Structure formats: structure tokens, C-alpha cells
Fold:
Amino acid sequence: MKTLTKLLIFIFAFTVVSCSKDENIVEPKFDVTVRSNTVKVGEPVTFFISGNPDILSFWSGERTHVYSNQSVSSEKGVRQWVQFETQLGAGTQTNNLKLMASNDFSGTYDAESIAKATWTDISSRVNWATSGTRVGSGQVSLLDFSTATNSKPVYLAFHYLAPKNTIKPRRWTIVNLQVHNVLANGITTTFAPTLLSSLFTDVDLQNPNFNWTINSGMIMMDAPVGEETNENWAISGAIDLNRVGTADFANTSDGLLKGISDGAVTEYNYSFVTAGTYTVTFVGTNANLKDKKTVIKNIEITVQP
Structure:
């Protein structure tokens, strides 16, 4: 309730004060200094502030509080991978499941479109189950399927092919699929659909009696010995490997130091809890209802253990 009251007061004050100001906004003039750019963990840093912008906010530079990242929605990570778990069921036929990837699949889920696309077999990157025990795939790298601009998404496909022979085809179960994009600063975006049916589509190429059953996970049932050749593709929707999710990135200001109706702030104390080098950002803004001008001040702080 207190937060809501403060917000309403701030909005009211902004409206009243800005209406009384000249419409020609001038660039805010302020500066920020410190006595030392090196401190210890837990030791307060005092930032000395001169000038008086209408609005002043503070970004600590710590993870998820980096001003330069506030508008990032896409960035190629230093590591990008898919992971999932597999489990084998009845049957003894081997090598009947592959993981494929494509950058040029059209998104039309039929035999003709599958044939036209360029598919790369990345099965060797996967740690596959060899028994009825569920096994994690490991981090299956997808870094070679993205670019800096990521103009083309990647499509993943589980290609099941069980030829007709005297060996019983094996049942496969796939669950807990996740796609990760890890940025250089350590921030990770994870795409983990609750229902794989929201991401994957089954395409039957041979033998309509056996298909991928896709719900929260995916299952290809085992067939009897001598069953006609069965071929199915479970193909994903378009995946943007460079996606940066706002829930994971969560870049927010550490605080509004002053609003438009507040008095000047001359100093601000902040303590870092983790050693490292941080780019601290102060954002000063002069504004009215029609315009605003912003000045940014950065200070590098080294925090020692």
C-alpha cells in the first residue's frame, strides 16, 4: 500500500511540476564521483553526486542490474545447447532414432518439405539411453546453428526409422527437453516447454499404424517383429537460439534515487556482496509531459574479496 501511495504521489507531482516548466527541456547536468574505485565485499561505496536532474536512477552493474542490457531481446550466447532425457522400452532393434537439425526447413510439416530441407545429423552429440533407465542427453551443442544476427531459426527433429526385419523395433520415450542460451556475462535464458506437444509435430512417412504420441513428453511405441517399415519425424517449431527472455534477463534499476518533486541527492551508499568488476550506472533525466532528455554516467568499481 505504501508503494502504491508513493507511486501516485510521484505521478501527481510529475504532472503538476512538469506542466509548470517550460516545454523546452534542457539536458540534465550532473556528475558522479567516488573516493576510490576499489572496495572490499560488504564495504559501502559512497557515490558523490553533483547537479540535480529531475529524475535520477541507479544501476549497480550486478547480474540482472546492467543498464546496457535493459533492451536486449536477442544475443548469441557463448554456449547454446539442447538437453533432454531418453528411455528405451521393449524391443532389440538398434540405431532407429536420430536427432537432426536444420536451418532451412520451411515450417511446412509434410514429406516434401522434409525432403527439401538440409538436415544435419547431430546424434553423435547425444548421450542416448541404452536400457529402461532414463538417461540425460548431456549438453547437445547447437552453437553452430546460430549466427550473430540469428536471421534463421533452427528446427530440431527426432527421426525414427524402424525397418521391417526379424528384430523387434524398440520403443523410445523423450522427456524434459530444454534449450539454453548462455551469454558471456553468465546470464542464461532457458526455454523449457511444459508440453512438448506445443513445440513438436509428428509427420508420418511410412506405416500410419505407429506414430509419435506427443504430450508432456514423446513416445514411439514398439512394434511387433516383422511389422512394416515405420518412419516418423517429430519436428519442432522454429527455435530462436539467441532469444533472451525477459524473465531470465530481468534487467531492472536498483532504485529511483529521486523523483521530479524530490530535493537534490548529494550522495548514495551501496554495498556489493560478491567480488568482481562492475559498471555502475546513474541515469539522470529532465522531463515534462511532452519531452525528456537523459544523461548517463558510468563508474567502474572493482570489488575485492
